[in-house]
Structures are given as structure tokens and as C-alpha cells.
Amino acid sequence: MPEKYMAIRDKRLRGGVPPRPHLAIHNTDATVPLRTVFNHINHYARSGKIHSLFILCHGYAGANKRLNMSMDAGGMGLQLGREGLRHSNVNQWAQIKNKVTNIVIYACAAADTQPGNERTDADGQYLMGALAVCTNANVFAADSIQFYYRHADMPNGAFDFRGWEGTFSSFFPSTDTVSRQTRPRWSSRRS
Questions:
Q1: C-alpha dist (Å) from residue 131 to 62, 87, 139, 190
Q2: 23-26: long-range contacts, CB 8 A cutoff, minimum separation 24
Q3: What is the 3-state secondary structure (H, E, C) of 75-120?
Q4: How far apart are CA 145 and CA 109, in angstroms?
Q5: Global confidence as pTM
Q6: Average model confidence (pLDDT) for the chain?
């Protein structure tokens, strides 16, 4: 049986997910509760574990709360569905525990933790690590603002994220270790 993939796209991120074999696409927005997202994931995983779940959305970014200043900072969560993914509700993701092997986050500054924001609601490394533990999945995210391109000639103006901006981190459910790379192995950045 071929590996299965799923993309959860919040429609506030403009563009579309290019169709791929064995990829289920679920769109959400500010009116869709996370329980609906979890139901779609669990339904798709009935016939076997999902290899990779791609989450495409905006990240909450723009401030260092401890320094009380605006900046290229993030780690405050993801604009996903009605509730978002935040420190206060990451435990709800246990509803998809053991259904997904990898979760890849395409959002701005999801794994960012600015100095002084450790152990606050702006600690993105903690949030991504908690997501890994709650889902028992490997989580991959970057710490910087991400840029993407839309192809007008493709259906729905399909996304092209190209390479990762900033430092790319891997969070594993079974360890406190975080792996950081400037560019992940599979990145195919074009100039």
C-alpha cells in the first residue's frame, strides 16, 4: 500500500495545494472548529497511518512580549481553524495521537523562541515540542518568517514554498532533543 499524505490548509493563506498522488487535502478557515479537522485526519487514517501531515497556514508572529516590542518574532501559535493552535490548546491534538508519523508546519516563525520568551506563550520551540508529544509524531518547523510563491498558471494559484527561511528544526516525541539545520536535506531552493 502506498504511503498516504494529508494537507490541512487554512484558507486565510492565499493559494492552493498542488494535487499529488495519495494526498488528501482538507481546507479550513476561521469558522471551522479544530474537532472537524481532527475528524478528517482520523477518518483518513482509518485505512492506515498517515505518513506526513502538512499544515499550511499563517503563524502568529510579530512581537517579543517580554521586551514589549514589535519585531520578526513568532512562536505564538498557528492561525488554523477557529481556535488556532496555541499553547493553551495544544493538548487537544492528542485526538490524532498515533495517526500521523510526521507533521510538517509551513507557517511563519512556528518554532521561534526569542531570548526572554522561554516558557511563555511565545515559546515556539516548546509549542512544537508539545505538539510532537501530544500527537506522538515528528514535527518539523522553522523559526523565521516564511516566503512562498503562488503560480497563477496552476489550479488555485498553487503554493510553492521553495526552501526554508531561517533555521529548520525537528521535534521528536520520545526525546527532549531538538535537531536544528539551516536547510533540511530535501530542500530544493531555486535561485
A1: 22, 9, 7, 30
A2: none
A3: CCCEECCCCCECCCCHHHHHHHCCCEEEEEEECCCCCCCCCCCCCC
A4: 5
A5: 0.86
A6: 85
93-117 per-position pLDDT tens digit: 999 999 999 999 999 999 999 888 8
Would you tell me how many other CB atoms lie within 10 Å of the CB of residue 20?
9
Where are the chain's structural domains? 4-181
Going along the chain, which residue ranges are E strands? 4-10, 23-28, 50-56, 58-59, 63-64, 69-70, 78-79, 100-106, 138-142, 149-150, 159-160, 168-171, 178-181
Write out pLDDT tens, residues 72-91: 678 899 999 999 999 999 99
